[in-house]
Design a protein that fits this description.
mainly beta, single chain, three-stranded antiparallel sheet, seven-stranded antiparallel sheet, globular, 14% helix, 5 helices
Length: 266
């Protein structure tokens, strides 16, 4: 089975930093950044794939203007693999306590899913994903819903003080392991909490990939805890009934829609 890794990064450059990508110490690519990458506002297009009762017209979502896309074969992955991103040569003009310029980055989006799940049409979503995967495992799809900003999924049983209670939704990471200095204490951190702003440090970030429900995906608690997620839409909650929620990231759906003719995703 073929998989696609899509990295969306916002940058403001001072020099020429780079990002090295590897999977289980297997070299994938080294990105040499030469120009700023800004973000842009695009329509949220989940209704191109499914109908969501009771929701008003969705607000636009923000995506980086440029994504780095890689196709990976499942033969190079094990039941537990590690995707690593190394941020190298990020510099500033810091001198004697003063700094006016620096390389900065924001890891806005990290998507990893089977190639066939980068949806190209409503039929693709309904047949390949909904009927042949979700319903067979007693899941029902849902895009991002949260009490605060309609971007995070919430598991109240984890508690609001825990970084594991929120998630951007599949197919994004819930956790990352940050190794480096001038960061949080090394260990598990949540992706939304760790990258909700621009940063300029050199570091290595590891994402754990596991095989669950028949395909490789970022490790998360939510496929197992899906029946504990908060649902704020009463109309939708009535349709869920005894099924478990499979949270889908709305930025991912918009990315799929706006890249449905991208030759690298065919």
């Amino acid at each position: 089975m073929k998989y696609v890794l899509a990295l969306g990064i916002e940058t403001i450059l001072y020099k020429s930093p780079k990002i090295r990508i590897s999977l289980d110490n297997r070299f994938i690519d080294e990105i040499h950044l030469e120009e700023d990458i800004k973000n842009r506002s695009v329509p949220a297009n989940y209704r191109s794939y499914f109908n969501y009762p009771g929701k008003t017209k969705p607000d636009p979502v923000t995506l980086p203007e440029k994504f780095y896309i890689y196709k990976l074969d499942d033969e190079i992955m094990s039941s537990e693999s590690t995707l690593s991103l190394e941020f190298l040569n990020w510099k500033s003009n810091y001198t004697n306590g003063f700094m006016s310029r620096s390389d900065t980055y924001k890891l806005s989006n990290v998507f990893f899913a089977p190639e066939k799940f980068y949806f190209k049409s409503r039929e693709n979503f309904e047949l390949d994903f909904n009927k042949n995967f979700l319903l067979k495992h007693n899941f029902v799809y849902d895009d991002d819903i949260c009490f605060a900003n309609d971007e995070w999924f919430v598991n109240w049983e984890k508690g609001r003080t825990s970084t594991s209670f929120i998630w951007y939704g599949w197919p994004t990471p819930q956790y990352m392991n940050i190794l480096g200095k001038n960061l949080f204490q090394p260990g598990l951190e949540s992706l939304p909490m760790g990258f909700d702003y621009h940063r300029s440090d050199n570091c290595k970030i590891d994402f754990k990939i596991v095989k669950k429900h028949g395909f490789h995906q970022f490790e998360s608690d939510f496929p197992d805890d899906a029946n504990k997620l908060v649902v704020l839409n009463e109309e939708w909650e009535a349709q869920i009934k005894d099924k478990k929620i499979w949270p889908i990231n709305s930025h991912f759906l918009s990315f799929c829609y706006h890249n449905r003719n991208n030759k690298y995703l065919q």
